[in-house]
Amino acid sequence: MTHTESPTHPTTLSTDDPRFVIARTVATARATIDAVRPEQFPLPTPCREYSVVDLLGHLYGVFGRIAAIGRGEDATLVNTEPPFDAVADWSAAFADAAHEIQAAWTDPSTLEQIVVMPWATLPAPAMLAMYTNELTVHTWDLAHATGQSPTWYEPAIEIAYTAMQFGLPAEGRVNPIPFADVVPTPDDAPLLDQLIAWNGRQP
């Protein structure tokens, strides 16, 4: 992400560049993470296997995987499942992780990669769209668990929803696919609610 003021507020990328979209999504996640209070760490989240602090650990791993993909590394080597290492200052840890994402994706040629993961082999822009979904949904999980109302970047939601409709069919969600069934949602529901429902959560 060249010539940016911060790792989450790019100033020279076009708004349709997937790196711009993931940066805005990272910014929303970080704002939500920064508002989490330590006494909320044990609370349950809509992501049933995670408490709030578990979800923070998972998100930290997701940040790390996004950076690893940009560097052309094996992202599966980055842990995203508990147990997680203790972190004294989540805000500082995520600030550093966001800088790593920025550095990893600065070169436009990163978008020419073909990314191989256990669950898909995709061009880098499509993989970033999938991670836009993961960050958005888990940010919603965190916000829901801690009583927050983030300011969402609507184009990121649109990209995530399109990606998941393509990459996660409504039918046939059985193990090891880690998604519950689609939750029925009115056609005129807000797009965020439709995205959350497609990911198997009750908006």
Walk me through the structure.
There is one protein chain. A two-stranded antiparallel sheet has the order 1-2. The protein has helices at 18-34, 52-70, 90-104, 124-146, 154-167, 191-198; strands spanning 114-117, 120-123. It has six helices and two strands, in the order H-H-H-E-E-H-H-H. The protein has 203 residues and is mainly α. Strand 1 and strand 2 form a beta hairpin. The protein is globular, with a radius of gyration of 16 Å. Mean pLDDT is 90; it is low at 1-10.
> What is the C-alpha radius of gyration, as a whole number of Å?
16 Å
Element-level helix/strand string:
HHHEEHHH
Strand order of the largest sheet: 1-2
**How much helix, percentage-wise, in residues?**
40-55%
Main beta-sheet strand count, sense and barrel state = 2 strands, antiparallel
- Averaged pLDDT: 90
Question: How far from one another are the termini?
Answer: 33 Å
What characteristic shape results from the CA principal axes?
Answer: globular
Runs in which pLDDT lies below 50 for 5 or more consecutive residues are 1-10
Structural class estimated from helices and strands: mainly alpha
Number of helices: 6
Number of strands: 2
How much of the residues is beta strand, in percent? under 5%
